[in-house]
Design a protein that fits this description.
The protein is of the alpha/beta class. It has nine helices and ten strands. The protein starts with a strand and ends with a helix.
Length: about 240
């Protein structure tokens, strides 16, 4: 069995899942922005539920954003810790918005938009089709701008941002949006997407990789505004 551990911490709703490409063995969800304290125990519990150990893992797949800066950092830090002692483990990533949209794409067999709340009056949004191809690449913008940039009208919009801007979503699609919990991302969907060609990106060098945050953290914005210069990023020095 080629067991894969899936991690999604891109939004307030986090989850971990265990399985193989196209098949879920077990899944655990957690919420309320407790990712830092809950993620490691959730992975341990997940392995116990499946009666396997860390040595049984063949790889990891992680939702790589856009989304919560802190949430993505927590997810990738945990993945790095697991990968650090195992040269044989492979890391794959999936766009978090694709993972959120995919269940509805499969159900409706039409393009679906996924929209996360990005705060500051903006959203992270993207549109995907029935072959998991990108129709509109992830954007960070207002809802009005997202609609303007879209080359198609999606069948429905999912995600916490869709629920937050529900009336605009109804005007856009003619349907009620699908918010949490049904419209929340799931780690199990990452496993399902692993069965599709080109849906997962394999990361060759973990030291050179950074999640797709969508934009920099608010704290970094404040620091750069106060000091009048970019915040030093050690990751850039490694590139």
């Amino acid at each position: 069995m080629t067991l894969q551990l899936a991690i999604d911490t891109a939004t307030d709703v986090g989850s971990v899942a265990l399985g193989e490409p196209g098949r879920i063995v077990a899944e655990i969800h957690f919420s309320e922005r407790r990712h830092a304290s809950v993620l490691a125990p959730a992975v341990d519990q997940l392995l116990r539920l499946a009666d396997v150990g860390y040595d049984d893992l063949a790889g990891l797949v992680v939702a790589d954003g856009p989304g919560s800066f802190t949430g993505l950092r927590i997810g990738f830090a945990h993945a790095q810790g697991l990968l650090g002692g195992r040269d044989d483990l492979v890391l794959g990533t999936v766009p978090s918005l694709l993972a959120a949209a995919w269940p509805s794409v499969c159900l409706l067999q039409r393009p679906v938009a996924a929209v996360y709340d990005a705060y500051r009056g903006e959203v992270f949004g993207a549109i995907y089709d029935v072959e998991a191809r990108t129709i509109l690449a992830p954007q960070c913008c207002s809802v009005d701008e997202l609609v303007r940039r879209s080359p198609v009208t999606p069948a429905v919009v999912v995600g916490d941002g869709a629920a937050l801007y529900a009336e605009q979503m109804r005007v856009w699609t003619g349907r009620d949006p699908v918010g949490p919990p049904l419209g929340s991302p799931r780690a199990g969907t990452l496993l399902q997407l692993m069965a599709l060609p080109d849906a997962v990106t394999q990361i060759a060098d973990l030291g050179e990789f950074e999640p797709t945050y969508g934009r920099q953290a608010a704290a970094q914005d404040r620091w750069e505004s106060t000091h009048g210069r970019p915040l030093h990023d050690p990751a850039r020095d490694r590139r």
